[in-house]
TrEMBL record:
Taxonomic superkingdom: Eukaryota
Pfam families documented for this protein: Epimerase
Species of provenance: Carya illinoinensis
Record lineage: Eukaryota, Viridiplantae, Streptophyta, Embryophyta, Tracheophyta
Name used for this protein in its record: NAD-dependent epimerase/dehydratase domain-containing protein
Keywords tagged on the record: NADP, Oxidoreductase
Amino acid sequence: MAGEKASVCVTGGGGFVASWLINLHLSKNYFVHATVRRPGDAKYAHLSAFEKASENLRLFKADLLDYDSIRSAVEGCVGVFHVASPVPSSSDTILNPQVEVIEPAVKGTQNVLKASVEAKVQRFVFVSSIAAVIMNPSWPKDQVMDETSWSDTEYCRTTKNWYCLSKTEAECGTLELAKGSKLDVVSICPSLVLGPVLQSTVNTSSLFLMRLLKGLESVENRLLWIVDVRDLAEALILAFEKPEAEGRYICSAHMIKTESLVDMLKSKYPHYNYPKNFTEAQQELRLSSEKLQRLGWSYQPSKDTLFDSVQSYHQAGLLD
Ligand SMILES: NC(=O)c1ccc[n+]([C@@H]2O[C@H](COP(=O)([O-])OP(=O)(O)OC[C@H]3O[C@@H](n4cnc5c(N)ncnc54)[C@H](OP(=O)(O)O)[C@@H]3O)[C@@H](O)[C@H]2O)c1
């Protein structure tokens, strides 16, 4: 799909996932149009330090709810990677779910889709989440979850799980619209994304891991599904470059309980202030990324993801 030096657009360029994706695109000689909300802000300084950024990276000021700004950013691109979305750290801190989460995710995605159709983009890669897969109470307990499972929007609403609701509505709407247009859409549903940070700000999933190093008294011994941000960036490019890619793909590498994750970290970094107690949580869900692996995706060992994460937080002074 990608000719030499094809242009692609990445929305939410300053974020955790998008930064790695842009870096990988640049290393593969793509021209990148990255959207950011406040060009000139120090939070985007890392982007211009990427190799080949001076020649091949252009920042566009765009907000997801401002159609014209998005339209300018996607012009001339063969691929659009829609990564931007609000990622709240907890539902409790959201005062107005419609304004803070749902609208930027759902209306914002419609804007990026519409702009992509108008600009005659060839493939639209949407970053969804397992949040759009796993909130499905009617899924049989003994069955591994795959891409046929959709989170139940009514269930998300009644449990006030606004992030899951936003990702489900945005992804569902994206795939629906694709059916009636010439735009080729592929969506990737990552689990909890960890790995080294390139950006100077702290994103929600990295914060989750940082908290485990910073003196929580007690945590739930939950089953976690994790994927490395570098492997996710590879998956997104695979979804763009492989002509046979279609529909949605779960992107998750490892299933690990919180206590085992903490034990793994302790073996390498014994001096952090780890949780003292773990309370057991009831969870039986299993997920499969087989479809993505059949497309050629592979992933690194969980140790590399976790150790490299902590090293990067330390280097960035985020643990002081
Ligand atoms: N991290 C995970 O564990 C995880 C797991 C599954 C799926 N995902 C998905 O991956 C994507 C990236 O997540 P991330 O972890 O990289 O989060 P992040 O670092 O918080 O990045 C989110 C980006 O979205 C942008 N954004 C939010 N609202 C916007 C708006 N109204 N207009 C323009 N940009 C807006 C933010 O821009 P500013 O920089 O201007 O704030 C930021 O760059 C999201 O779609 C998320 O749902 C993440």
